[in-house]
Amino acid sequence: MITLNTLIVDDERLARNELRRLLEPFTNINIVGEAVNGDDALAKIAELQPDLLFLDIQMPGKTGFEVLSALHDHVPEVIFTTAYDEYALKAFEFNAADYLLKPIDPQRLAEAIKRLESSEPRVAPEGDGAGANSFSNKVLSENDQVFVKDGDKCWFIRLGNVRLFESVGNYVRLYFDNQKPLILRSLNALEERLDPHIFFRANRKHIINLRMVEAIEPYFSGGLLARLKGGDKIEISRRQAIRFKELMSL
C-alpha cells in the first residue's frame, strides 16, 4: 500500500480538525502538515512536497483554484473540500481527483481515497452548457462520480445512485432521487461506457441499474417487467429477457 503524504488546506480550524479525525482510519494517509490560507499552502507545498492535498476553495487571499494555478514544479493530487457545490465543474477542469462537500461524509471520503489507491483514470467534464457532463471514454463503474449539468442546475452524483437511463431523442434522461436531468448523449454511446454487470440495456429506450430492481414479473410476448426503486416500471424486451435471465442465473 502506497503512503500518501498529505497536506490539509483550510482556513477553518474546526474543519481541519474534523478532517484529521475522519482520516485517522486510513493508515496510508500520512498528514505532514496544515495550511490556513492560499499563501501558506504554497509555502507548505514547496517545503513538504506532499503527494495529496485536501484543498478548500473559498479562503482569505488566494482561492484553492488560484493555489493550483500557481503550482508548476510539484503538483500533488487534489481532493477539494468545500461547502459549495457550484464549483464542481471548475474543480474537474483542474483535474481534481474528487470533490467532497462539507460536512464530509465518511463513505464518500473512503471512496475518494480508494480511487486514488487504485489509480483509476479521473473523470473530467466535457464541454459546458445544457447537457455538459463528465461521462468520459473509460468504462464507468457504479462507484464513479460524474458531474451532470442541465440548464442552470448541476449535480455531482455517484453512478450507482442512478436507477434508470432513458433515451429522449438525441439526449438521455437520468433518473436519481427525485431528479431527471437530460444530458446530450445517445443511449448507445452511453451503454458502451457503463459496466454491463450493473447497467443493463432493457430495451431500445432504457438502461436500468440492476441493483435498483425490486421485482421482476412476466410481461407480454415473452418479455419481462422490471419494477425499480422509486416506482419506475420498465419493460425488458423478449430478446433482452433471455440475456437478463442468463445474466441473473446461478
TrEMBL record:
Short name of one Pfam family for this protein?
Answer: Response_reg
Lineage top rank: taxon: Bacteria
Q: Keywords, A to Z?
A: Phosphoprotein
What positions does the domain Response regulatory occupy? 5-117
Membrane-spanning ranges: none
Q: Which InterPro entries match?
A: CheY-like_superfamily (IPR011006), LytR-like (IPR046947), LytTR_DNA-bd_dom (IPR007492), Sig_transdc_resp-reg_receiver (IPR001789)
Does this entry carry the keyword Phosphoprotein? yes
Instruction: Write down the CDD domains for this protein, in alphabetical order.
Output: REC_LytTR_AlgR-like (cd17532)
List modified residues, type 4-aspartylphosphate.
D56
Q: Where is the HTH LytTR-type domain?
A: 148-250
The Swiss-Prot or TrEMBL record annotates one GO molecular function as: DNA binding
Task: Name the PANTHER family for this protein.
Answer: STAGE 0 SPORULATION PROTEIN A HOMOLOG, TRANSCRIPTIONAL REGULATOR-RELATED
User: This chain belongs to which protein, by name?
Assistant: Two-component system, LytT family, response regulator
